[in-house]
Amino acid sequence: MIRGLDTTVKRLRRKVFEEVARLGFEANDETLCDDMEAIPYAMVNEESPVYRDSIYRARAVVRERLRLAMGLSLRPENKPVHLTAGVEASNISDKYYEPPLMQVIPSACAACEERGYEVSNMCKGCLAHPCMEVCPKSAISMVNGKSHIDQEKCIKCGKCKSACPYDAISCKARPCKMACGVGAIESDAMGRAYINNDKCVSCGMCMVNCPFGAISDKSQIFQLAHALKDGEEIVAEIAPAYAGQFGDNITPRNLKAALKELGFSEFYEVALGADIGAVAEAHHYVDKVVTGELPFLLTSCCPSWAMLAKKYFPDLIDQVSQELTPMVATARTIKQKHPNAKVVFIGPCAAKKLEAMRRDVRSDVDFVITFEELQAMFDAKNIDLTQYEAESSFHDATGAGRGYAVAGGVAEAIEKCIHEYYPDVEVNIEHAEGLAECKKMLALAKAGRMNGCLIEGMGCPGGCVAGAGTNIPVPKAQKNIKEFVKASTKKLPPKELAEIELK
Fold first, then answer.
1. What is the pLDDT of residues 38-88, one digit of tens each?
2. Which residue of 91, 151, 195, 422 shows the fewest CB atoms closer than 10 Å?
């Protein structure tokens, strides 16, 4: 597990974001292409650490990462396409996106082997040889006093590994494929990873689990930096998972002031939209599920979970909550107060970039960036958050809405609201985290085994704090949110909050 570690891959990824943000802040139309072409040489040269087998391959990977960070697609391997091809279209101060969101960089992929088993030097050649005894295909024999697996006969069942008393049999697996809960990682003709976009729900778990940094999402930091440079009115809405993401001693006041220095005009908590959603879904559950009109209710705030339900279980679409997600509810609140402003969602989630591209959301959310990308923007402007402090903190939300950031927090908030507003109503809560578990939960719901339940699904194991765009280890982030919720002045939103007209 490499989540939360300050690895070379993480540092290179952050550096590319920083350079692209700097382009957005500083480059002009005349020099943009030249400045873009210079970045791979500045990042990878003879004095740089050896990241790959050669600086030339390392530069090739940086070039493709550079394109993705500017919202452009990877270049084809079999056609001569210039690094800056298409940059004119992305050189704007508005949302820009070329699908798909997640892409594998072929030059970075190590073509990891698919699932398989090998005997390590830990083998003692024991007398019992249980690995041989349990193998259903007689694929294991003793060679020179050690166990040997015939890969032609092996069916990769793993029984030998389970039986070995010395843990001498290792399982080889492609990390990105193991992290994908929907089986979207396949192989191309050269054995490299390939994302099947018909299956992918853009959670980004493949990206953060690849130790070669071969998978990346597209970014909007260049366009956002462009808009900030132009002095446009830009309002930030910040997901509750931000707690602790920018340093142990960074307070909401520090973050608020640093965002002001970056060029944002106003700031709102996305937890405000979560509060609105919790109240609305509490009423929805009582009105629809308790009365028997719907068999169960699926939350909709996690875009990967919602995409999973719609792609793999289309029969359950009517059970997916139609209430606004926290991001959209907060954005519409902002647009009512600042009709001419551009709204930027800042959060832990890569899939939110796709949610913001939906036809019914595009006009509400103008940009989506992750905490990782925001940190890169601070770096590009040399903003040290410890040197800035606002006069006030964020005071838009309750503990219930802020708790949305962790797995189980959405269902818990809705449950508490139901108990507060409808004390006589019994609530049945279920939740799943990680797409594989989410898929199982939806299958059970389809089979009629979840009737009467409010079902929360989180695409990332651990919830939003485990999103692909976070900066710190998941357990640390979970602890921060727990403290953040506990410190909230208000615990629950008022029942009347659902009456806010945002449709």
1. 999 999 988 877 778 889 999 999 999 999 999 999 999 999 999 999 999
2. 151
Closest by Cα among 425, 503, 413, 409 to 462: 409
Q: Report the top-level CATH class of 99-109+177-217.
A: alpha beta
Q: Are 91 and 84 in contact, with CB atoms under 8 Å apart?
A: no
Rounded CA-CA distance 391/253 in Å is 7
User: CA-to-CA distance for 119 and 149, rounded, in angstroms?
Assistant: 7
CB burial class (10 A; 0-12, 13-18, 19+) of residue 498? buried
Q: Which residues contact 485 (CB under 8 A, 6 or more apart)?
A: 399, 402, 403
CA 473 to chain centre: 14
Please, are residues 204 and 350 in contact by the beta-carbon 8 Å criterion?
Answer: yes
pLDDT tens per residue across span 186-218: 999 999 999 999 999 999 999 999 999 999 999
User: Of all helices (H) and strands (E), which one includes residue 237?
Assistant: strand 234-238
Pairing of strands 169-172, 116-119: antiparallel
- Residue 177: CB partners within 8 Å, gap ≥ 6? 114, 115, 185, 193, 206
Classify strands 193-195 and 428-433 as parallel, antiparallel or unpaired.
unpaired
Check: pTM over 0.85? Answer yes or no. yes
- Condensed to tens digits (0 to 9), the pLDDT of residues 285-317 reads 999 999 999 999 999 999 999 999 999 999 999
9, 16 contact by CB (below 8 A) = no
SS3 category, 313: coil
User: What are the residue ranges spanned by the domains of the chain?
Assistant: 1-91, 99-109+177-217, 116-172, 223-491
At the topology level, CATH places domain 116-172 in Alpha-Beta Plaits (3.30.70)
Q: How many CA atoms lie within 13 A of 183 on its CB side?
A: 3
Confirm whether 99-109+177-217 and 116-172 share one CATH topology.
yes
Could you give the 3-state DSSP secondary structure of residue 157? coil
